[in-house]
Amino acid sequence: MNFYEQVYTVVRRIPRGRVTSYGRIAKMLGRPRAARAVGYALNALRDEADHDVPWQRVVNAAGRISIVNREFGSNLQAEKLRDEGIVIDEQLRLVDFTAVLWVGLDWHETEDLIDSNGK
DNA sequence: TTGTTGACCCAAG
DNA sequence: TCTTGGGCCAACA
Fold first, then answer.
1. CB neighbourhood size of A27 (10 A)
2. Which nucleotide does the CA of A66 lie closest to, via C1'?
3. What's the CA gap between A52 and A35, in Å, rounded?
4. Which residue's CA lies closest to nucleotide B10 at its C1' atom?
5. Does residue A30 lie within 7 Å of nucleic acid chain C, judged by its CB?
6. Is strand C within 7 Å of residue A90 (CB)?
7. Which CATH class name applies to A3-117?
8. How far is A113 from A45, CA to CA, in rounded Å?
9. Residue-wise pLDDT tens digits, A50-100
10. Shortest CA–C1' contact from A35: which nucleotide?
C-alpha cells in the first residue's frame, strides 16, 4: 500500500457533513509534516475517473478551501460541501469550521485500518 | 542524484 | 487580517 492509498483510506472515513485538514490526515498516517504530500495525493484523484474518495471534505488548517478555480464566483469544492450542509462564505471560509471538524483517528487506529484494508 | 513543484503548516511581523 | 520565510514530504523529469 503506497502513500496515496493510505491517504485515500483515511479520507474515506470522513463522515458526511464533516471535514478535516491536510495536516491532520498526515498526522494520522504517522507523518506529521507530510501535509503537502497529502495535497499532492488528492490532486492526483482528478485524473481517476472512478473513485469514491470524498476529497471535498479536506481543507487547509485555517478552515479554508485551498483549491483555486479560474472561474470567478464558483468553486466545485464549496458546492459539494454546501450540499452536505456545511456553510461557506464568499471568501471560501468554513463559517463553523470547529463545529464540523472531524478530529479523526489516532495513529494506532489508522495503522490497524491500513493493515486490514491493505494487501 | 538533483532540482522543482505542489489542493500545506506554522510562527513572526 | 495578510504576507513572508523556512520547513517538510512525495512524485517526477
1. 20
2. B7
3. 21
4. A61
5. no
6. no
7. mainly alpha
8. 21
9. 789 999 999 999 999 998 765 556 788 999 999 999 999 988 999 999 999
10. B8
Q: What is the pLDDT of residue A68?
A: 73
Q: Where are the domains of chain A?
A: 3-117
- Which alpha helices (H) appear in chain A, and where do they start and end? 3-11, 22-28, 35-44, 76-83, 97-100, 107-117
Q: Report yes or no: A97 and A13 within 8 Å, Cβ to Cβ.
A: no
Note the pLDDT of residue A56.
Answer: 94
Length of chain A: 119
How far, in Å, is the CA of A85 from the C1' of nucleotide C12? Answer: 38
Residue A37's pLDDT is 95
Strand partners, A94: A88
Upper half-sphere CA count for residue A42 (Cβ side, 13 Å) = 25
